[in-house]
Amino acid sequence: MVKATYPVSPAVVDWVISQLGTHTTPVDSLPLLKEWQAGVKTPTLSEIETVSKKTHIPLGYFFLQTPPKEEIKLMEFRTIASTSSENPSRDLIDTIEDMEQIVDWTRDYLIADGSGVNPIVGKLKHETNVGVIANYIRQVLGLSTNWFETKEPSFNYLRDRMSEAGIIVMMNGVVRNNTHRPLNIDEFRAFAIADTFAPLIFINATDSKSGRLFSLLHEFVHICLGVDDLFNDRHSTVKGVSKLEILCNAVAAEILVPTNLFYSTWESFISRSSSTEETIHKVSHFFKCGNIVVARKALDTGKISHVTYDNIVQNALKHYIENRKSKDSGGNFYNTKGSRIDKRFLTFVVDSVSRGTTLYSEAFRLTDTNRHTFPKLVERMND
């Protein structure tokens, strides 16, 4: 019996091929696509489904006459605009779409519950003073100047404060639960959606611990300014960065390393260090943040040169790469899953399910769980 074939538009085939090889997208479908492109072979439905699954391109796209126009609004808010970031990977696209669905669902939930807009979003949209913004953030998050002295990990501490303030903070290092689709840190570190009802921050968990901490604050500044952001500055760039990004970076650094404490701490350690690099390491340990943050503060305050700063950045990136290669990818499923989901958002989902306004199937989709893992996740997060 001859299998039915389904011609794919040459323009669509060309577009699919253009998507291959970007970041983590596999290229093992290329030979078959080349046959379709040359007209040597007309694909069967099974072959189209296979290519769709391997490339993560939606099945319906293959039956269009012209390539889809995917308008990824967040791409307009890239921190660093470059040719390499113009064509987002399917991994980034799927992650953004997943987070947009969470924002949409949460907005509907809050409106139905009678909640108003979140007053933090856009509160400082016309403010440009680093000190004013930093003080506002300390106020709304209930932070003291020396908040970093808390025994709790700094990232968890700030994340919980932000969640209490109505910010959805999600984190993942892969697309959904697919470990074969790791998120590429060279493509993006984090992003923010400044929705007035359900503002969201997404952190790329493949970043270093210090990188995640900085990104969390960087994106929170964007929420306060009311501006979406796709944070893709992998190399802590100094030149060619917009005034907005310079402002967000400066505020994040001020929260992590308050200037008035930095001066005295720097002077205290520099007299007991054999090199500038050792001083930076000691100061970063004191403030519980990364070397790059301290190096940038030292650069901005005239303590080090641009050359020294660039060396610190390169060494930090090298150290990150070495650690990633030796890192064990194992771990408890529920601990990992719990770290990905905003606790407040999960309570909303559970509440909506209990009221009967959200189906279990929808709850599973929103949380990337199933009928077995969802109740266990809820139980773990309530412990």
TrEMBL record:
This is ImmA/IrrE family metallo-endopeptidase. It comes from the Bacteria. Signal peptide: none annotated. Residues 194-290 form the IrrE N-terminal-like domain. It holds the Pfam family Peptidase_M78. InterPro entries: IrrE_HExxH, Rad_response_metalloprotease.
